[in-house]
Amino acid sequence: MRSPRTCLLALLALLGGLLTVTAAASPAAAAPNFKAPYACGQQWTYSHHSAEVRQALDFVRTDGGGTAGSPVLASAAGTAYRYSQPSGAGNYIAIEHGGGWKTYYFHLAAFSVAHGAQVAQGQQIGTTGSTGNSSGAHIHYEQLYNGVGQPIAINGRSLAPYPGSYYSKYLTSDNGCGGGVGKYWVDTFADATGYAAADTVDAQGVLKAGTNYVYCKVWGARVGTATQFNHWWLRTDLDVVYAGKNGRNAYVPAYYLSRWGNDEARDNNGAVIPDC
Fold first, then answer.
1. C-alpha closest to that of 219 among 143, 132, 110, 135
2. Calpha distance 49→121 (Å, rounded)
3. 45, 64, 111, 216: which has the fewest Cβ within 10 Å?
4. Per-residue confidence (pLDDT) for residue 3, from 0 to 100
5. What angle do CA 12, 16, 21 make, to 5 degrees?
6. Do residues 44 and 38 touch, judged by C-beta distance below 8 A?
7. pTM for this entry
8. Which H or E run contains 73?
9. Is the peptide bond before 274 cis (omega within 30 degrees of 0)?
């Protein structure tokens, strides 16, 4: 018969082994449900260059819109930090998503959010450019866990294996589409041109003056005068659609809201319109 001390030591050894197994089996923090880093409905192609680190992908637009100047969107919510590296990444943003997860967006032409800003998924954080060590406008995009590059996954689906050149694989974005959001009724004081994104690059049609519904808002290009202006853009469906364009889920400036102030986006009841 073993002594009580021997039994105690054996029990402690067993517990230690169980703790070791449990620690080794602990999974990594679940990744956010990352979405494409560009606007809802847009199609881009992507490629990977062997010289790039951390399993990055480069994206260029292929749906007829221009790559340069296209909005770059947060692929998940988090805290955005602005940086500049003229000899490499150029103007870039890192978003800390929590749980060890981070995304990078390199070569931006311009920033759309402040350093340290809290951003929502689908919020514009910059515009696509070619700053730094870049040979043409594109979005250089990375997903990292605890500083280690991960195979990029969009909507929970890995894009690996990566193509070595553009135009063999494509990805259409559902970022900022706001699935399941309600309608918010607003009054607009004049006809407003609607665009494919929160800027004045790709006009889609016109939203007529009057009472209209909108779905949600995103931060974008400044519209207005020196004293009256708004950076918010409202996603809605247009009344008049230009030939060959898409009038659904277009963006109009919140500047046209008739009863609110600068950089406000509220419905007719005063409720803040939610982020897309």
1. 110
2. 27
3. 64
4. 55
5. 150
6. yes
7. 0.60
8. strand 71-73
9. no
* Distance separating alpha carbons of residues 143 and 260, to the nearest angstrom: 38
Beta carbons within 8 Å of 252's beta carbon, 6+ residues apart: 188, 192, 193, 194, 195, 207, 214, 233, 234, 236, 238
Check: CB of residue 174 under 8 Å from CB of residue 36.
yes
Measured between alpha carbons, how far is 249 from 179 in angstroms, rounded to an integer?
11
Residue 204: how many other CB atoms lie within 10 Å: 23
Distances in Å between the Cα of 138 and the Cα atoms of 47, 58, 60, 142 are 11, 6, 5, 13
Q: For residue 127, how far is the Cα from the chain centroid?
A: 11
Q: What is the pLDDT along the chain (276 residues), one digit of tens a residue?
A: 455 555 444 544 544 444 443 333 334 678 999 999 998 878 999 999 877 778 999 999 998 888 999 999 999 999 999 999 999 999 999 999 999 999 999 999 999 889 999 888 888 899 999 999 999 999 999 999 999 999 999 988 999 999 999 999 999 888 877 554 567 889 999 999 999 999 999 999 999 999 888 988 999 999 999 999 999 999 999 999 999 888 888 999 999 998 899 999 988 878 888 887
Inter-residue contact 253 to 230 (CB < 8 Å) = yes
Asked if 129 and 66 touch (Cβ cutoff 8 Å), the reply is no
The one-letter code for the residue type at 126 is G
Is residue 79 a contact partner of residue 118, using CB atoms and an 8 Å limit?
Answer: yes
Strand order from edge to edge, sheet including 229-236 = 216-224, 229-236, 250-253, 192-195, 203-207, 240-241
CA distance 270 to 268: 6
CB-neighbour burial class of residue 24 (10 A; exposed 0-12, middle 13-18, buried 19+) = exposed
